[in-house]
UniProtKB/TrEMBL annotation:
Keywords: Cell membrane, Glycoprotein, Membrane, Peptide transport, Protein transport, Symport, Transmembrane, Transmembrane helix, Transport
Main location: membrane
Location of the region described as Disordered in the Swiss-Prot/TrEMBL record: 683-722
Protein name: Solute carrier family 15 member 1
Species classification: Eukaryota, Metazoa, Chordata, Craniata, Vertebrata
UniProt biased composition (Basic and acidic residues): 684-708
Annotated Pfam families: PTR2
Membrane-topology descriptor: Multi-pass membrane protein
GO cellular component: apical plasma membrane
């Protein structure tokens, strides 16, 4: 039952939808802004590895799309859509605030060294925040779109259809801005004791936008058409289905006449209108069974694709793109493609007399998503070809550096090679057991390195002979596309080196500094000796490289001091450009336009009037199951190569796409309003009434005879109402 309000209209559209669209824009900004940096927050702040970060990420997304069931129950049976949206938005905003607080490293940094002393507290706050967000965002999901549809009258079907496109545009506009802005906020430096990436700000701005979303939605309260809750419809539907199954199983004997549909076995207890509505819902829900596989691929944009972008080159010339900002390609393309598809592609298809039904659109969308993962696999193969080979658990690697001011001849028992003065070997040699190191035909030295390590062996002069010093190197690409830089001090005195606000500290002679992550761009290094004499030199860096800078004994402070500093490359910079991801984003976004936009409208159009939130929750449930599929497939497959996992997901979606196409072929579209009107105002003729009465009488007599056979059937007969 709707409260009748004559809403002000603008260009034929109710003004109330303005508040709903703005609310959705702000809410989606909040959600996608937080989610854009979430997997990097897990990896770089909470220090989880790639696999565990991906697991928690998809678990969170799955919870976000499981909670719509709760939201639908609350909206349809207790609070109504309006109050449900308001109350759960408060929970949602609280979750965002908790997430922002959880990312403040200073709250547990008692040592003031930039490292949280109680990581368990940060993890606990993060999990509480994510649970509140999942409950809030999921709870309002089935309500907002359906609430927007409720603002239109029955003769505004065209406007309602356009509303769903506008609604989806608002989702992607919010997503676009947030995925541009929050990575920029994340990249800022903030903190009281030490400056670190500003995750509190990256989470805090989405929290503020969620508060704005709530305020805007409440401001439109007086204009809304509000549907009063009509009872616990979801529980009622479940009871109706359960009774039909139980009744059919109880009366499985051939003595009972067959019924047209198995749900008709609920007629003894439930009215035909409810049964007809349940049939419509089940018909669509059955069609939803293959859909989760699409979302299993789609939502990896925020996990696997984002993590992969950290191994790519994000320099676009005029701007440098952060790995998490690559997610903006999807909403940008959505904003372009939705109008193009709605106003150009679909009309052209219609003029070609092709019956491009909603289910055919969705089938095409699934196929395009599968192609996107084929493209992702091809890009991954290119990336893998450029990545360094790190040692396995039973291997050791070594790189040699000559810090002697003359050429050296070196042998490791397998090969001989030469190193010039202050020169390093560019590649690493791999060993599986200790080896003999011989320098300039001198006495051999037995070298034993720890398994699973990369090492740099620096050759230095020790009196008349040569000695060596071993230092361990990093065994992974530098985090977040930064560059791991260190210095070897071959100078005769202590040197102090800084870059930006980071300090290498005092480096004593013949010693190696720690690695410090220097961001992409020009790094400016400041070097001082004990006397305070300063050397300033700069070096331009790409993404994901690692270098060892050598300060030779011949180093001289002065205007051109940087020219005498040598460098040895440990890990090459990322050479595959992020732009190579654009084709896969284009294919995925094309699939989304055909699949998701169509699916939203299809769910609403095929839903009975009092079960629209229920069917919306069912649609969103497919997203949750899709994210669970990611966890299952990723864990069960245990594929060593990421490209192979992409191909596996693509193959699974193609298979599911074929199954869905077959199911769609046999689907018959319905008009819920007409079916409901038919059952609400039945007008059977005399013959139909007579047949109906005879059928009821015959069934009652047969049931009475069977009731005398067993006591259980007798009890059943008492509960049956003919």
């Amino acid at each position: 039952m709707k409260s009748k309000k004559r809403s002000v209209t603008v260009c034929g559209y109710p003004l109330s939808i303005f508040f709903i669209v703005v609310n959705e824009f702000c809410e989606r900004f909040s959600y996608y802004g937080m989610r854009a940096v979430l997997v990097l927050y897990f990896k770089y702040f909470l220090k989880w590895d790639d696999d565990f970060s991906t697991t928690i990420y998809h678990t969170f997304v799955a919870l976000c799309y499981l909670s719509p069931i709760l939201g639908a129950i609350v909206a349809d049976s207790w609070l109504g859509k309006f109050k449900t949206i308001v109350y759960l938005s408060v929970v949602y905003a609280a979750g965002q605030v908790v997430m922002a607080v959880s990312a403040i490293h200073d709250i547990t940094d008692g040592n003031k060294d930039g490292t949280p002393d109680n990581m368990a507290l940060h993890i606990a706050l993060s999990m509480v925040g994510l649970l509140l967000i999942a409950l809030g965002t999921g709870g309002i999901k089935p309500c907002v779109a359906a609430f927007g549809g409720d603002q239109f009258s029955e003769d505004q079907e065209k406007q309602r259809s356009t509303f769903f496109s506008i609604f989806y545009l608002s989702i992607n506009a919010g997503s676009l801005l947030s995925t541009v802005i929050t990575p920029i906020l994340r990249a800022q430096k903030c903190g009281i004791h030490t400056k670190q990436q500003c995750y509190p700000l990256a989470f805090g701005v989405p929290a503020a936008l969620m508060v704005v979303a709530l305020i805007v939605f409440i401001l439109g309260s007086s204009m809304y058409n509000k549907t009063a809750p009509s009872g616990n419809i979801m529980v009622k539907v479940c009871k109706c289905i359960f009774f039909a199954i139980k009744n059919r199983f109880r009366h499985r004997s051939s003595a009972y006449p067959k019924r047209e549909h198995w749900m008709d076995w609920a007629e003894e207890k439930y009215d035909k209108l409810l049964i007809a509505q349940v049939k419509m819902v089940l018909k669509v829900l059955f069609l939803y069974i293959p859909l989760p596989m699409f979302w299993a691929l789609f939502d990896q944009q925020g996990s696997r694709w984002t993590l992969r972008a950290t191994t790519m080159d994000g320099n676009f010339g005029l701007m440098v793109i952060q790995p998490d900002q690559m997610q903006t390609v999807n909403p940008i393309l959505i904003l372009i493609m939705v109008p193009v598809v709605d106003f150009i592609i679909y009309p052209l298809i219609s003029k070609c007399k092709l019956n491009f039904t909603p289910l055919r659109k969705m089938t095409g969308g699934m196929f395009l998503a599968a192609l996107a993962f084929v493209a992702a696999a091809l890009v991954q193969l290119q990336i893998d070809a450029t990545l360094p080979t790190f040692p396995s658990s039973n291997e050791q690697q070594a790189k040699f550096i000559n810090m002697v001011n003359r050429n050296l001849s070196i042998a490791d028992g397998r090969e001989n090679f030469h190193l010039g003065a202050f020169e390093g070997r560019q590649d690493y040699l791999t060993y599986t057991e200790p080896f003999l190191l011989t320098i300039n035909s001198g006495s051999p030295n037995l070298i034993s390195l720890p398994d699973g390590t990369r090492n740099t062996i620096v050759i230095v002069e020790q009196g008349p002979a040569f000695g060596y010093i071993t230092f361990q190197d990093i065994v992974a690409k530098p985090e977040e596309g930064a560059n791991a830089i260190r210095f070897f001090n071959g100078y005769g005195s202590v040197l102090n080196i800084t870059v930006g606000d980071q300090e290498y500290g005092d480096i004593v002679p013949n010693n190696m500094s720690i690695f410090i992550n220097v961001p992409q761009g020009t790094g400016k290094f400041f070097m001082k000796n004990n006397g305070g004499v300063e050397c300033v030199f700069s070096r331009k860096f790409g993404f994901g490289s690692s270098y060892t800078f050598l300060i030779p004994p011949t180093f001289v402070f002065g205007e051109h001091c940087g020219e005498s500093i040598k460098e040895v490359e440990n890990i090459k910079p990322n050479s595959i450009h992020m732009a190579w991801q654009i084709p896969q984003y284009f294919l995925m976004t094309s699939g989304e336009v055909f699949f998701s936009v169509t699916g939203l409208e299809f769910s609403y159009s095929q839903a009975p009037s009092n079960m629209k939130s229920v069917l919306q929750a069912g649609w969103l449930l497919t997203v949750a199951v899709g994210n669970i599929i990611v966890l299952i497939v990723a864990e069960a497959a245990t594929l060593p190569d990421q490209w192979a996992e992409y191909i596996l997901f693509s193959s699974l979606l193609v298979l599911v796409c074929i199954i869905f196409a077959i199911m769609a072929y046999f689907y018959t579209y319905t008009d819920p309003a007409k079916i409901e009107a038919l059952f609400a105002n039945p007008e059977p003729d005399d013959k139909e009434k007579k047949n109906l009465e005879m059928t009821k009488k015959d069934m009652a007599e047969k049931h009475e005879r069977r009731s005398s056979d067993t006591s259980s059937d007798e009890e059943d007969g008492k509960q049956t109402n003919f």
